[in-house]
Design goal:
Blueprint lengths: L5 H6 L12 E6 L3 H5 L1 H12 L4 E5 L7 H6 L4 E9 L2 E9 L2 E5 L4 H11 L6 E4 L22 H14 L6 E4 L6 H15 L4 H10 L1 E8 L9 H11 L7 E4 L3 E5 L2 H6 L2 H4 L5 E2 L3 H24 L5 H5 L2 H15 L7 H15 L8 H4 L3 H20 L4 H13 L6 E2 L4 E4 L5 E4 L3 H9 L5 H9 L2 H4 L9 H15 L1 H7 L2
Parallel strand pairs: 1-2, 1-6, 2-5, 3-9, 6-7, 7-8, 10-11
Antiparallel strand pairs: 3-4, 8-10, 12-13, 13-14
Helix pairs in contact: 6-7, 7-8, 12-14, 12-17, 12-18, 17-18, 18-22, 20-22, 22-23
């Protein structure tokens, strides 16, 4: 069976959407699963729905990568978007043709290709996802390096070549999972301008003619299909092999922080896709952390103690799902600074995402480092609800009690791997967190529940404040913990409904 390519698709009579030739408008640092299921998908839709007529060139950010595979397939790959949408199971296949080629700048031809693209009249955008560690300033990088080792160093080389060629400024869209990713990238580029002694005119070009955008990305991308039988089945259905096959969830949103003119320049609004340009991504990050991530941390620990193992099964249970939704709609959404209809729509999508029939998301994997997660994701909602209403948020109080129970149920041992506990289902489970947190719970394993709850709440290293000083919180959390100990976490969740 032939590998995916334009020639192969022609030979099998493929009649889906394809765009074979178009100007190369995007230089993309990163060729991995996420960007191909996210950014290149959106641009592909823009080609079909809005006539954008553009291609993306993928630049390998490190010395090893997928360049050879991508070029062997003419930039083509198969994307499956799978999950739940409005309560319905969805499994969509699309061949992505928005990629023209890939470059490895650590090879001579690849570096030349990157610098040639830098001065192209067609180039309009730079997109990046070089992992959280990618936006760093490395003073060892030099302008003469071929290439500079850091991503900001490479970008400075690209922009300087473009400036010297007197070409227009670019829009830079950072997708790395750090706060203010666009601002951080610009800061690093300015450091290289200073370190390399580049002229003031170039600094003005970077800071005024170029537009650095912070963005917020949201799509779960499992990536490769690893089951050999499923791979063989799909190859037979498709009529070609594709080692670059990618899988993402159906839901996706790309919030782009930028000036108003950018929304008209980008092709996404015209294509009708979920990539809004907003003046500030901060509220949208808060929405994601408080609703999506906060829902996970808020219900999974108690759900695990109640005998559940994967997220999807929790969504099939009226009590667990009802507890999560009451927490989100009654206690979290009222604290957020966005339009309520927008927040309700996002929360409804969360339930669909958690009910994804294609992803077995284990509760124990979500439980990692739950102390810092509860502090970052749930405590702000708790505090703002209390400030706004003068009342304790019942579900979040119970969620905190479930957190304490998860870290203290029938403690067996403290090992190098973590704190070993045992749930009522009969199996041992290992709590993973910072070592000092695990040592704290192990040291308090003989405490009564009231002693333990007070010790946890008053530990300012955990929470940044003494939670026992909040009127009524300790007493209400202790009541919820008592229900969990006696009747189980599901009974505690039911008591909130």
């Amino acid at each position: 069976m032939e590998k995916l390519s334009y020639k192969t698709l022609e030979s099998i009579g493929y009649n889906g959407y394809l765009l074979k030739d178009a100007p190369e408008k995007v230089m993309q640092f990163g060729e991995g699963n996420f960007l191909r299921a996210f950014v290149n998908y959106w641009f592909d839709i823009a080609n079909e729905k809005a006539g954008w007529n553009g291609k993306c060139v993928l630049v390998q950010p490190i010395a090893t990568g997928l360049t050879s595979l991508i070029n062997a397939q003419d930039g083509l790959y198969t994307l499956y978007l799978r999950g739940n949408e409005n309560g319905q199971k969805v499994d969509r296949k699309r061949i992505i043709s928005s990629v023209s080629r890939a470059l490895n700048p650590y090879e001579e031809d690849g570096f030349k290709g990157m610098m040639d693209l830098a001065v192209s009249d067609d180039l309009e955008y730079v997109v990046s996802n070089t992992t959280e560690a990618g936006i760093v300033y490395d003073p060892a990088c030099q302008l003469k390096d071929t290439p500079a080792s850091s991503f900001p160093g490479k970008l400075t080389q690209v922009l300087y070549a473009r400036y010297q060629a007197k070409k227009s400024g670019l829009v830079i869209l950072s997708c790395e999972l750090i706060d203010n990713n666009g601002k951080e990238l610009l800061r690093c580029v300015n450091q290289y301008i200073d370190q390399w002694g580049l002229e003031e005119g170039f600094k003005h070009y970077v800071n005024n003619d170029c537009t650095f955008c912070s963005t917020l990305v949201d799509r779960i991308v499992p990536g490769r299909i690893r089951d050999p039988q499923e791979v063989a089945r799909l190859d037979a259905e498709n009529g070609y092999t594709d080692p670059l096959t990618d899988v993402g969830e159906v839901f996706g949103v790309w919030n782009i922080e930028g000036p108003q003119w950018l929304e008209e320049k980008l092709p996404f609004k015209a294509a009708g896709v979920n990539c809004p340009v907003v003046p500030d991504v901060t509220p949208y990050k808060k929405r994601k952390v408080r609703i999506l991530n906060g829902a996970h941390t808020g219900f999974v620990l108690g759900a695990y103690l109640a005998g559940f193992d994967i997220v999807r099964d929790c969504m099939a249970d009226d009590t667990i799902r009802g507890f999560m939704n009451k927490m989100l709609y009654d206690e979290v959404i009222p604290t957020l600074p966005l339009d309520r209809d927008d927040l309700v729509s996002f929360a409804a999508a969360v339930q669909d995402r958690f009910n994804n029939p294609f992803v077995n998301h284990e509760l124990m994997s979500i439980s990692l480092n739950s102390t810092s997660k509860w502090r970052a994701r749930n405590l702000p909602s708790f505090e703002e609800y209390l400030e706004k209403t003068g009342k304790l948020p019942t579900c979040l109080v119970t969620s905190f009690a479930a957190y304490v129970a998860f870290y203290s149920t029938d403690i067996q041992a403290l090992t190098d791997a973590g704190l070993v506990c045992r749930r009522k289902k009969g199996n041992d489970y290992t709590v993973s967190d910072d070592r000092w947190v695990l040592e704290f719970y192990y040291a308090h394993r003989e405490d009564s529940d009231s002693e333990l709850m007070h010790a946890v709440m008053s530990n300012q290293e955990m929470w940044g404040r003494d939670l026992s000083e909040i009127p009524g919180f300790e007493a209400e959390a202790l009541k919820a913990l008592a229900i969990i100990r006696k009747d189980g976490a599901k009974a505690a969740y039911a008591a909130c409904l």
